[in-house]
């Protein structure tokens, strides 16, 4: 009984739990039953090792950008992310699986939707033609109002080219998102969904949303100016529907190339802007019209061919990606440019000219569907 009490005392971290026996204290019984100090030390060592065998699980903390070191230098074109936490995966290659499937699926849906959109546009052209004749006749007999603001807007809109009218909605979306960046309460949401980063918890939707996102006014103005300048040429080459499919797909594809580069090099960080998609537009036009003359907006006296401009841009972005320049996302630029070259050279024949099966299926669905007010037999 005394040995049991001594043993229990060792397990209970030195707190005596039995009363004194025969006038002798627990300490005296312990000394009598353990004649050797060496035995007591060994037993206590065994107990201490037994009690300390299980370790508490270590909590994994999210990685935050190291703004104090020279390895992290924030560009003026991206928002401050000192408070944003990154969650890099312990298996970086697995991080690219979902973005890869999203890129392939979104690209297919974009071109499929563009084919259906073109079918519906062609189908409604006749009705639109007669509606236009009726509207012109009503305008001729309706008394005209001088200084009508709506009339001036319609006149300005009708004077635009098809390409300029197409990109007007894109520019409006970019301006709207730029205004959202100025709202302090939306900063966390904007960083989460409108900047693309493979170390973020949200991977897929920012690949598209960041294409319409600009934090810097200069960045947005430069991108929208280039898009406006090349809009007429690219829409004349591809058409309105095909251009929209190429532009949206280019934004996702260029962000995926950026993901691959960041995972391969370990240089994580947020990216945003329409530069990748605009590089696709620029590369497509320069590939289709290599002898066209281009000039810089601030230096109009210096002109160069579109082919030479494309070679210089690809060389600069390749060097920036290899050397790790951080002012631009050179991997996204390079991915967008290569996609534009590939699509004009091969993609148009492989993708757009093979849309007839999908259009036929859509046509059968439209013609076989019951009309309004009627019933099926």
UniProtKB/TrEMBL annotation:
Write the protein's name: Presenilin-associated rhomboid-like protein, mitochondrial
First-listed, main subcellular location of the protein, grouped into a coarse class? mitochondrion
Enzyme Commission number(s): 3.4.21.105
Q: Where are the transmembrane segments?
A: 100-119, 163-181, 202-222, 242-260, 296-315, 327-345
Please give the catalytic activity noted in the UniProt record: Cleaves type-1 transmembrane domains using a catalytic dyad composed of serine and histidine that are contributed by different transmembrane domains
Q: Name the membrane topology term.
A: Multi-pass membrane protein
Q: Which UniProt keywords apply?
A: Hydrolase, Membrane, Mitochondrion, Mitochondrion inner membrane, Transit peptide, Transmembrane, Transmembrane helix
Q: Which GO terms describe its cellular component?
A: mitochondrial inner membrane
Q: Which residues form the Peptidase S54 rhomboid domain?
A: 207-347
Which family does the record claim for this protein? Answer: Belongs to the peptidase S54 family.
Q: Which organism is it from?
A: Capra hircus
**Gene3D superfamilies referenced in this protein's UniProt entry, alphabetically:** Rhomboid-like
Matches recorded under InterPro entries? Peptidase_S54_rhomboid_dom, Rhomboid-like_sf, Rhomboid_protease_S54
Q: How does it assemble?
A: Interacts with PSEN1 and PSEN2. Binds OPA1.
Where in or outside the cell is it found?
Answer: Mitochondrion inner membrane
* Gene Ontology BP, a term: negative regulation of release of cytochrome c from mitochondria
Q: Which GO terms describe its molecular function?
A: serine-type endopeptidase activity
């Amino acid at each position: 009984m005394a040995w049991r009490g001594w043993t229990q005392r060792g397990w209970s971290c030195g707190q005596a739990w039995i009363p004194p026996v025969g006038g002798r204290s627990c300490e005296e019984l312990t000394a009598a039953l353990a004649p050797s100090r060496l035995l007591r030390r060994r037993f206590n060592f065994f107990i201490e090792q037994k009690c300390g065998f299980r370790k508490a699980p270590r909590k994994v903390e999210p990685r935050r950008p190291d703004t104090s070191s020279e390895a992290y230098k924030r560009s003026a074109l991206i928002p401050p992310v000192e408070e944003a936490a990154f969650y890099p995966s312990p298996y970086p290659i697995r991080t690219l699986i979902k973005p890869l499937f999203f890129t392939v699926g979104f690209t297919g849906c974009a071109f499929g939707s563009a084919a259906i959109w073109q079918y519906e546009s062609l189908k409604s052209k006749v009705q639109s033609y007669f509606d236009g004749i009726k509207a012109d006749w009503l305008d001729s007999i309706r008394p005209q109002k001088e200084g009508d603001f709506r009339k001036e807007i319609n006149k300005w809109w009708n004077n635009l080219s098809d390409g300029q009218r197409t990109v007007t909605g894109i520019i409006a979306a970019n301006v709207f998102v730029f205004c959202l960046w100025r709202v302090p309460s939306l900063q966390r949401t904007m960083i989460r969904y409108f900047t693309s980063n493979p170390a973020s918890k949200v991977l897929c939707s920012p690949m598209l949303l960041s294409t319409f996102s600009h934090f810097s006014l200069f960045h947005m103005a430069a991108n929208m100016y280039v898009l406006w300048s090349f809009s007429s040429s690219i829409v004349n080459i591809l058409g309105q529907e095909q251009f929209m499919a190429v532009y949206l797909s280019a934004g996702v594809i260029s962000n995926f190339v950026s993901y691959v580069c960041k995972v391969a090099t370990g240089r994580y960080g947020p990216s945003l802007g329409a530069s990748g998609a605009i590089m696709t537009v620029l590369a497509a036009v320069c590939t289709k019209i290599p002898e066209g003359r281009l000039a810089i907006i601030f230096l109009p006296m210096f002109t160069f061919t579109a082919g030479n401009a494309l070679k210089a841009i690809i060389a600069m972005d390749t060097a920036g990606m290899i050397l790790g320049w951080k002012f631009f996302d050179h991997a996204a630029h390079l991915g967008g440019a290569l996609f534009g070259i590939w699509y004009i050279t091969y993609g148009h024949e492989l993708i757009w000219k093979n849309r007839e099966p999908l259009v036929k299926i859509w046509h059968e669905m439209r013609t076989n569907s019951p009309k309004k007010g009627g019933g099926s037999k």
